[in-house]
Amino acid sequence: MHPFQKQTFSAVILLFCLFLSAKTAFSQKVFDLEITGDYRNMTMIEMFLDIEKHYPARFFYDPTVLPYYKIEQDYNREPLFNILQKMLPQHGLVSAGARDNGIIICRKSDLTQTYLRDLLRRWDEKKIEMPEFLTPVELALQTGVPPASTDKTIAVTGIVLDDQNKEPIPGIVVKGNEPGVGATTDRLGRFKINLPPGEHLLIVNYIGYRETRVLLQVYQAGDISIPLQVRALELAGVEVIGNKAANKQTAVATGVEMLSTQTIKEIPSFMGEADVVKSLLVLPGVSTVGEGSSGFNVRGGNVDQNLVVQDELPFFNTSHVLGFFSVFNPDLVRSTTLYKGHIPARFGGRVASALDVRLRDGNFEGWHGSAGAGFASGKLTVEGPVWKDRVSVLVGARASYSDCMLKTAKLPEVKQSSAWFNDVNAKVSWRVGKNGSITGSFHRSQDYFRYAQQFGYQWRTQGGSFSWRQGWNEKFLTSITAATGNLKNTYFLPEGYDAFTLDNGLSFRNLNAQATLLFFANHEITTGVQWNRTSMLPQELTPRGDLSGIAPKTVQLENGEELAAFVEDELKVTKWITLSAGLRFSHFRTLGPNDVFSYEPNAPYSAETIIDTIRYGKNSASQTYQGPEPRFSLNVRLGRQNSLKVSYNMLRQYLHLISNTTAATPADLWQVSNRYLRPQVSDSYGAGWFYTQIDKRWETSVEFFTAIPKTCRPIRILPVCC
User: Fold this and answer.
1) So what's the pLDDT on residue 694?
2) SS3 682
3) For position 717, what pLDDT does the model report?
4) Nearest to 680 by CA among 304, 313, 339
5) 220: which DSSP letter?
6) CA 182 to CA 198: how far, in whole Å?
7) CA distance 505 to 490
8) For residue range 3-56, what is the model confidence (pLDDT) as tens digits?
9) Is 681:695 a contact under the CB 8 Å cutoff?
10) Distance (Å, rounded) from C-alpha 258 to C-alpha 251?
11) Of 273, 271, 670, 635, the residue nearest 459 (C-alpha)
12) CA 619 – CA 616 distance, rounded (Å)
């Protein structure tokens, strides 16, 4: 290079360095800003936008050169200079000072005076286009027609839906542009907000969805629907549930846990198979019965003291392969809620907990399918619209190939054993009008287990449910659900002189009608009636094989019928105090055909002490129990981070699991209450303190609970309380 050219090039470099030095010195204060924030669920662009909202800083960049995936960082009084020095180099980016407390972010190879000037010019001329997922979706809606109502405030009800599958989204905060105006969607995705007549701006934000801004014209009371669009950068499916931190602080109930499908799939489980019941074991107060046995225990309760329902269909056995897997297909589950403290009045029949599992609706827009294979089982899911935007279907099936794995074992006993299961779930969803839905669900599962030629179990569950939910107006919603099904269990000894097969089980029919009333400000009243009929299948002992010497025998067990009515009110007393009060009254009858024995006074119950026998015909009541079940829970919020809760529940259980082993098995006998097997009655008390950090990264809670069993006295003829 010519000496003159060298001098010219050196001068240009020097001038450029002086230019950057001047800019850096001019913007040195912005680099000294101490940043505090949780950016673990944000992209780099979102972090820059958030810093601009809270600090005197401005960023200039080309959005196409910045990464779109989440940076997963959080800071506490960290200098901005240090943040950029740690974050940018790993992406090939550098920073430089600019005018007006500005910071330029660009690739290291683009750090030239021409590029920087051009970048600033494009920002000044508003030629920089932000990614679509960062731009808000704008909607224009209105309630009623002009002229506007003369009322000071107008009640506007709405529902927030996923724009793709039209699923309602619970736990989302809908904010107004006026101070103190907002609402949170309930478990059906619905919300209610009071606004004065006129124009209002509602803002809806949630992780995994684009921000939605609703310009709402309010003339009269009415309903609105807000669809949320999934952000394009989310590569995996997004499962949305109620905000956990918000629930802990604002929800009135104690001991309520909600798990998303994504959380269930992320929790390590047996042989890599995602499992709903196994995921519950990570929750405080929930413990396993033990591998090789069925069910789970909640706060010291027994297996049979947990009410388990899937789309209102009760489950009496939740296990596959003796408890190694559960009967719930995680690919179909929308939400899983465990009530282990305060149990709402709409749940009854168990004294320890209530597990409410909800299946998602099928896709209303297009057909989709998925298949997978694990170490122990394979699965298939198909969903799509039968009538677009109106009727959808969802079908999922699983089957195991455990026998193939057992054949590879070295121990002869294991190689001669057999274990397999399969299950099928189906759901049809029909949108009736604007505020109604009709759904039908079906479940069937079957299991078989045999240990060599020593013993074995076989059990099967099948049933279906029908549900009609309708919103008649913004203040009155109804729900009617019917369910029916059966459970059949078998215990057997495969061979030998004492080889036998022992069958038992039950069938059930349920009907539930309830209504939600929102006629009064700050009140959400739910009331309803329920009917449950449990019919016990005969216990049948039969010989197995030609060499068996077992004599056949059949025993007919009693049936049971329960009628219940309930009402509960969730009252927002003040901004910081919420009260839930409910009352459930249940009436149970033991029905024939059955024989009721009378025994000698003060003598043990045995065949030798029977002094009389009363025979009851079909559907004749041989025993009656009834009584109230009050429920109460109070939440006192101590600021935005702390809350105190207390609760009291009386619970009654009329169905029992009879077992002759220390751990429950699939062939254990279910038995309704009768004259000598009285209902289980429990007074449950709970209290807790809940704390959530401002950034919602950590959550701490301490709960105390106790359950006091009571004796329920039988009644006969005259209906009196227990």
Assistant:
1) 64
2) strand
3) 35
4) 304
5) S
6) 16
7) 9
8) 444 444 444 444 444 344 434 444 457 888 888 888 876 788 888 888 888 898
9) no
10) 12
11) 670
12) 8
The single-letter DSSP state of residue 550 is P
User: By C-alpha distance, which of 506, 512, 507 is closest to 531?
Assistant: 512
Residues 6+ away with beta carbon under 8 Å from 98: 23, 27, 58, 60, 104, 116, 120
- For 231-253, how does the pLDDT look when each residue is reduced to its tens digit (9 = 90+)? 654 433 333 334 333 456 677 78
Angle at 608 between CA 607 and CA 612, to 5 degrees: 75
321 falls in which pLDDT band (50, 70, 90)? confident
- Show the tokens assigned to 60: 């200039």
Residues 6+ apart with CB under 8 A from 477: 469, 470, 471, 515, 516, 518
Adjacent-strand bridge partners of 137? 212
Strands (DSSP E) along 131-266, which ranges? Answer: 137-143, 154-162, 173-176, 182-184, 190-195, 198-204, 212-218, 222-228, 256-259
Element (H, E) at 35: strand 34-39
Which candidate, 309, 265, 264, 317, places its Cα nearest to that of 289? 317
Concatenated DSSP letters of 477-540? EEEEEEEEEEEEEEEEE-SSTT-EEEEEEEEEEEEEEEEEE--STTEEEEEEEEEEEEEEEEEE
Amino acid at 387: W
- Sheet of 306-310: strand order equals 256-259, 333-339, 353-359, 306-310, 313-314
Q: Is the peptide bond before 593 cis (omega within 30 degrees of 0)?
A: yes
Residue 246 confidence (pLDDT): 40
> Coil, strand, or helix at residue 377?
strand
**Cα of 704 vs its chain's centroid, Å:** 24
712 contacts 678 by C-beta, under 8 angstroms: yes
The residue assigned the tokens 């254990």 is 668
The answer to whether the beta carbons of residues 361 and 392 sit under 8 Å apart is: yes
User: pLDDT tens, 596-635?
Assistant: 888 888 888 888 888 888 888 888 898 999 999 999 999 9
Structure confidence by residue, pLDDT tens digits, 501-514: 999 999 999 999 99
Spatial contact of 376 and 362, defined as CB atoms under 8 Å apart: no
pTM score, two decimals? 0.68
Q: How many whole angstroms separate alpha carbon 298 and alpha carbon 439?
A: 31
> Which amino acid would we find at residue 34?
E
Residue pair 464/484 in contact by the 8 Å Cβ criterion:
yes
Rounded percentage of the chain residues whose pLDDT exceeds 90: 26
Euclidean distance between CA atoms 582 and 569, whole angstroms:
6
* CA distance to 247, 490, 546, 568, 616, per residue, from 553 (Å): 54, 15, 17, 48, 21
